[in-house]
Backbone:
């Protein structure tokens, strides 16, 4: 069955960095990346890969976050630099296997950025 294992969340001061990892049980996909949900807000895309390898970033993280992957390890990474308090959220790894297929979500990993 599909599994997503997340790691790397934690507490960091503003201006610091964290690196999130998501290990997927599938090697091919239509989307693999990260969403986040802050308190009182809806879940939003942070960054991710589509099937052709193209990337997509939220405007709020462009220039600060970078997504990468290891195909050999079925792992996607989110390098988060210059973190701001408004980046505080639960970060979820998301996988989709193709059109009209359901989304798969990791359990979420906390990212807290203090001022």
Residues:
């Amino acid at each position: 069955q599909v599994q997503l294992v997340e790691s790397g969340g934690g507490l960091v001061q503003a201006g610091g960095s964290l690196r999130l990892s998501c290990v997927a049980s599938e090697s091919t996909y239509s989307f693999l990346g990260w969403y986040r949900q802050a308190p009182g807000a809806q879940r939003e895309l942070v960054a991710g890969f589509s099937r052709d390898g193209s990337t997509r970033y939220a405007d709020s993280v462009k220039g600060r976050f970078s997504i990468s992957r290891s195909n050999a390890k079925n792992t996607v990474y989110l390098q988060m630099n210059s973190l701001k308090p408004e980046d505080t959220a639960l970060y979820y790894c998301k996988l989709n296997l193709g059109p009209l297929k359901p989304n798969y979500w990791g359990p979420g990993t906390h990212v807290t950025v203090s001022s």
Remarks:
- The mean pLDDT is 96.
- The first strand starts at residue 4 and ends at 7.
